[in-house]
Automatic annotation (TrEMBL):
<dbReference type="GO" id="GO:0006098">
    <property type="term" value="P:pentose-phosphate shunt"/>
</dbReference>
<feature type="domain" description="Glucosamine/galactosamine-6-phosphate isomerase">
    <location>
        <begin position="13"/>
        <end position="242"/>
    </location>
</feature>
<dbReference type="InterPro" id="IPR039104">
    <property type="entry name" value="6PGL"/>
</dbReference>
<dbReference type="GO" id="GO:0005975">
    <property type="term" value="P:carbohydrate metabolic process"/>
</dbReference>
<comment type="pathway">
    <text>Carbohydrate degradation; pentose phosphate pathway.</text>
</comment>
<protein>
    <recommendedName>
        <fullName>Probable 6-phosphogluconolactonase</fullName>
        <ecNumber>3.1.1.31</ecNumber>
    </recommendedName>
</protein>
<dbReference type="GO" id="GO:0017057">
    <property type="term" value="F:6-phosphogluconolactonase activity"/>
</dbReference>
<dbReference type="InterPro" id="IPR037171">
    <property type="entry name" value="NagB/RpiA_transferase-like"/>
</dbReference>
<dbReference type="InterPro" id="IPR006148">
    <property type="entry name" value="Glc/Gal-6P_isomerase"/>
</dbReference>
<dbReference type="Pfam" id="PF01182">
    <property type="entry name" value="Glucosamine_iso"/>
</dbReference>
<dbReference type="InterPro" id="IPR005900">
    <property type="entry name" value="6-phosphogluconolactonase_DevB"/>
</dbReference>
<comment type="similarity">
    <text>Belongs to the glucosamine/galactosamine-6-phosphate isomerase family. 6-phosphogluconolactonase subfamily.</text>
</comment>
Length: 256
């Protein structure tokens, strides 16, 4: 299947990333709302939510047409600080006018298995009612996925030494021993991530510089190595854009 190349955008500061990203997201929002009447957006947790602060200031976004999903979520009550929903709600969603019924948070008070099954079943309903299109290989297609990366190269809750990153069938899976606390989480799988129309890798700060160096192929590791999870982000038909600040690029020597 045709793989589309990646675009790498470099910025002087995280603030510049926040500004440019907000412009790109509002343009995509206008485009998809014009084309089909709504815009499907998948959010990561972590520092990404703070980087969306400039988006909140955009006056011309029709928030009522946004539909929000979570790339991964901790299996905790939605009201505790560990919840990605709470992080996103406090830092972003509560500041804009997205209808609550358009926000797909996970089911509470269930096991990780049940939470993953429930989230996948709800996505299947959205495919059945034609809100989400299906890719030729059978995965739901989101308009925009906003993806953060951990210092050791994980994305979503797909970690280096954990099998979930090799999932090829499920749309949503679970992990009970996440190396990043809290331990119990659900996560979208790589086939779903890679089916997206637009993937924005939003990666800032010095802590991620080593993983950025590996991910952008300026690594002294030999030929035979296991790729970092972030290196498995590779849209099948969509666009991948990296948003990086100077700190994140600080270990690169000869550019990329
Ligand atoms: O549940 C989570 O922790 C996040 O959704 C996770 O996937 C996050 O995006 C990365 O860990 C990067 O997080 P930072 O930006 O905070 O490093």
């Amino acid at each position: 299947m045709a793989r589309v190349g990646k675009k790498i955008l470099e910025f002087d500061s995280e603030q510049d990333v926040a500004v440019d990203l907000s412009t790109k997201i509002s343009e995509l929002s206008a485009k998809y709302i014009k084309e089909k009447g709504y815009f499907t957006v998948v959010l990561s947790g972590g520092t990404l939510i703070d980087t969306l602060r400039k988006l909140v200031e955009k006056r011309d976004v029709d928030w009522s047409k946004w539909i929000i999903f979570f790339l991964d979520e901790r299996v905790v009550p939605l009201t505790v600080p560990d919840s990605n929903y709470k992080l996103a709600y406090d830092g972003f969603l509560s500041k804009v006018g997205i209808p609550k019924s358009n926000i797909y948070s996970i089911k509470e008070k269930v096991t990780p298995e049940e939470a993953a099954d429930d989230y996948e079943a709800r996505l299947k309903q959205l495919v059945a009612n034609k809100t989400l299109p299906l890719s030729p290989n059978g995965f739901p297609i989101f308009d925009l996925m906003l993806v953060g990366m951990g210092p050791e190269g994980h994305v979503a809750s797909l970690f280096c030494w954990h099998f979930q990153r090799y999932e090829t069938q499920r749309w949503i899976t679970f992990i009970k021993a996440s190396p990043k606390p809290p331990a119990e989480r659900i996560t979208m799988t790589f086939p779903v991530i890679n089916a997206s129309k637009h993937i924005a890798m939003v990666v800032t700060g010095k802590e991620v510089a080593d993983a950025v160096k590996v991910a952008l192929h300026e690594s002294d590791r030999g030929f035979a190595y296991i790729p970092l999870p972030v290196q498995m982000v590779s849209p099948t038909n969509g666009e991948l854009t990296w948003y990086l600040d100077k700190d994140a690029l600080s270990k690169m020597q000869g550019g990329h």
